[in-house]
Amino acid sequence: MITSEDIKRRLWDGANDLRGSMDASRYKDYMLGLMFYKFLSDKTLEAYKTASGESGTEAEIVGAYEQAYDSYGDGLIDMIQGILGYYVLPQHLYQRWLKDIREGSFELEKVTESLQSFERTVATTGDVDDFKGLFSSSTIDLTDTALGSNLNARSRNVRQLIELFADLNMVALQKGDVLGDAYEYLIGQFAMESGKKAGEFYTPQQVSEVMAQIVAKSTDISSIYDPTVGSGSLLLTVSKHLTADERKNLHYYGQEKNTATYNLTRMNLLLHGVRPEKMTVKNGDTLGQDWPEDPERPSEGVQFDAVVMNPPYSVKNWNQEDLKVTDPRFEIAGVLPPASKGDFAFLLHGLFHLGQTGTMAIVLPHGVLFRGGTEGEIRKRLLGRNLIDAVIGLPDKLFTNTGIPVTVMILKKNRSLSDPVLMIDASKAFIKEGRQNVLQEKDIAKIVDTYVTRNEEIGYSHNATLKEIQENEYNLNIPRYIEAIEQDIAHDVEAHLYGGIPTRQLEKLTVLHDFTKDVLYAACEEVRPGYVELTKSVDVLTEDVLAHEQVTEKIATLTTAVETYTAAYWERLKQVADVDEIGPLKEEMLTEIKDVLAQFKHVDVYAGYQIIAELWEERLAEDTEKIVLSDFYEVGKTREPNMVVKGSGSTKRTEQDGWVGAIVSNELILQELYTTEVEEMDAKKEEVGVINEEINELVEAAKVEESEEADALGDALNAREDDFTIGNIRAELREVEEESEAHRLLTKVRKLVEQRTKFNRAIRDEEKALNDAVEERIEQLTDAEIDQLMYKKWFGNVTQSMTTLIEQPLKDELDILKQLKERYRDTLETIDAESKQLEKAFEAMLQELVVTE
């Protein structure tokens, strides 16, 4: 039961195994190109199968296609061409390469010949440009020595790559966008491996999501344009957030300067099920002559409902065509962007192609917000015409090709004159993964929600009026409009001098005041007006706060709300029947948890959102995909081979090591249905632990020179001196007198080692028997047991995780209270007393000194 996650893992592992030292940005062209050719071959066979009514195995269909071509020739090809808009001849099918590999007659030249044949066939169709040049030698050069130093090495490496896709039915995988997702995943993985070169073809998914969701939520979209399209990921991310009906009518436009990346764009769109007639992609320079132009209106650009772009940053010498300010794209600015920085040139190009009711989202370096000169003039003109809708500051190190922080700018042409510019500072909302910073789903959701609602939040978002912007001389640098929240509480001089916690600082603990004010002040004693001391430790106070009636009531209410939420979605998740239902169900769950948590004051709604987002990522996404392929209870009783990698280098191989449940994990069955056996085994392991402690003590004692243990046990240690060897112990016992201390110690060690061996053998045998029983149990699970196990897997920790969202802000403020208590503990008086005590001690030491000559 293969899922999209299985395919992703397998293909990426295969890529890493096969590419050797070849640069990832280059290897991707070979891997993704051949994967796409397999798709073209599979689609050709599917078209033939459907049109002819043939049935049978793939090999039988291939044979029938070959015979039909011998009989009908061009008539058959014209039929397939009419269905698909392209075709692959029988002798050039991917399946023919695989047959040659199996028969030992594979030749690299046949691959080159097949790719060139496809290029020739699409070149003769005249009106279909979507497939032309996909396999040109500039993209897939099978003579490249990076693939292997000689013909045999290149042939072997390409053969292994071809076999990687052998058993994948690309037509079946295209349903539900499994194939497209896998392709997009590989592009993203290659981007991470490519470092700086990734900027040529990939926008990080997290940044794409911010832009795509904003565009999709604010505009009715039937056409979308990316002037620096890269791999097409931005276009596809926007389409993912549209309804199925909207996607059917969506026309994709893109332009890409790099030929290999341009080819990648077309492959990516086609693999995601975009029909050739719904995509128009050009290989060209966006900052050269304008494209696309409206054929009915010369010198006027085609207008789009949405424009999204992640252009290369601050391109130098961008004006190679010697464009003038009279170019229609730049007229609105009144000046040309500086030749040393192309950022505004890309922005103005996109804006020129934006429809009157459309939305544009563009990623730019922060410099565009505040640089002066002609860029300042352009910014002033755009703001004066009220075209900038929002400025979103993102963290640094989001991109693999640059560490600089970036901004997403949103532009619209239909804004009212009084509409402010929404400023969002999301620069601190991230987690670190290795050297990169990453936006979590909760961070993306908060940005998008803030954009949609135009909500203002201190330290995060602000609606800047034109008057404010003018006062700042049209400088859009975000810190001018959003002040960072001061995390540290200011020091109180009087409290430092005389002690006590200032009551005005206690009043800033708003959560404690709202929930448990009475408990807080009951633990305070006034030491002088405006200052108090705690009469309880913060640890005791924490217990009192969390046990407070209002807190426990809130937790109980939230528990009920969350259990109602999970119960409703439990039933729906079990019954999901179509892969197209999965995405909308996930979005619904994420939206509803925000509504549930919004009813509770001081609860971090987006922290709860992240809990459900991670639940989907770690469990629900893959499980629901399997349920769709079968049935909840059927798949719950299904077990699959547990495939593990063994060996390394030339001996590396994949072997089966037992069985695992398709969705019900073996560990869960063990924990829930074999609790007694697990407890008994844990007890034995604890006994082994006790025995090991005794043995370790004796080992350490045996290392102490001239000790009784060293004399008696030293020779019984193994070569590493970290344990005793039973053979050494027995040998030493034969050498010592029975009544001696040495004999007693050796006998003690022997019994301990034998006892440990006995326990370990029993544990090993019991674990194997228990694992075998679990593997057998999978197929015999009852529906009730599956319900019990799967509810535990999906929702077992959700309620507890959600209720901590009530406790956490209380604990955070109690930590602040602890800091305040410690901060003001040492007063001037206590410091002075300690100083005098130290002086006395020093004087006493001086008196004891004896001066000798």
TrEMBL record:
This is site-specific DNA-methyltransferase (adenine-specific). PROSITE patterns: N6_MTASE. The lineage of its organism: Bacteria, Bacillati, Bacillota, Bacilli, Bacillales. Gene3D superfamilies: 1.20.1260.30, Vaccinia Virus protein VP39. It is an enzyme of class 2 (transferase). It comes from Sporosarcina pasteurii (Bacillus pasteurii). One of its GO terms (molecular function) is site-specific DNA-methyltransferase (adenine-specific) activity. Residues 175-487 form the DNA methylase adenine-specific domain. Belongs to the N(4)/N(6)-methyltransferase family. Its EC number is 2.1.1.72. Keywords: Coiled coil, Methyltransferase, Restriction system, S-adenosyl-L-methionine, Transferase. Residues 7-165 form the N6 adenine-specific DNA methyltransferase N-terminal domain. Residues 756-784, 810-848 form a coiled coil. Signal peptide: none annotated.
